[in-house]
Structure prediction request, 316 residues.
Amino acid sequence: MEISSLDRSHAGTRIERRYGQKVRAFRRYLPVYLFILPGMALFGLWTLYPLLDAFVMSFFNWNPNPVAQSPFVGLQNYLEAFSDPVFWQAFRNVVFYTAVTVAGQIILGLAVALLLNRKLFALGFFRVLYYLPVVTSWVVVSLVFAFLFSSSDGPVDWFLGDVLHLIPDTQSWLGSTTLALPTLMILGIWKGIGWNMVIFLAGLQSIPNELYEAARVDGANRWTLFHAITLPLLRPTITFAVVILTMGGFGSFIPMFVLTQGGPLHSTETLLTYAFSNAFSSFDFGYAAAITYIFAFVVFLLALIQIRLMRRKIEY
Prediction:
């Protein structure tokens, strides 16, 4: 079957039109690509490349000396982690720490948000006051807590022992295998209340006030308003907060490193502090990389489970 010259000319016109549209679109978006390029280059250099390099490193007995050999060991580093008792202790510590701090921050952050979601005198001052710990450096608040919970002349020990007489003697809060982790939990909860307050305030202010007015007309009290309207409509906000806080809890590093270095006897060891000590104390970079990727997989899996369990349609 022969193709007429008219059909060939139409086909050529369509090709030229499509080519022209692509050229115009490229010219239109070229400034956007140029603006994105530096950020993407930095992301690839400082984030993507180290992630891929660490993943490759986890399959080698990595030697930091570029001249020395780094033998391939396959899954040996991952298998070593699963048979390492210190790894499992660090895993239990971080699970316990995350469970307690996430629950504490959610409950106290929501309580503060409910208190400050109303007309009060100096409302802005109290909101800023609760948010100050969030913007304060982890190192700074860790050093403050080191002073507060110091066993010899710390204010906490003095108040609980000499004033309230709740403890018989001076306590080694950060040097005890039973008290060190709870002390770090108190620090984590205190620092995170302000962030949760802001998140829950945003969620509370997005709830239509007409729902509360209609419920009051039907005779609902404060508790009914909270568990029948406020709590269900805050479910997306709670889901977001739980996921973010869980990732943050599993990624806890600075307070443990500054205050206890994972001790005493690994009682405050977390996955990241254990990976850090393996990398920069034992120089076992391959094993440390394997630990960090196990950590990343666990956090990703937990986030998926939390989102699926707490996902539910909201009907007004």
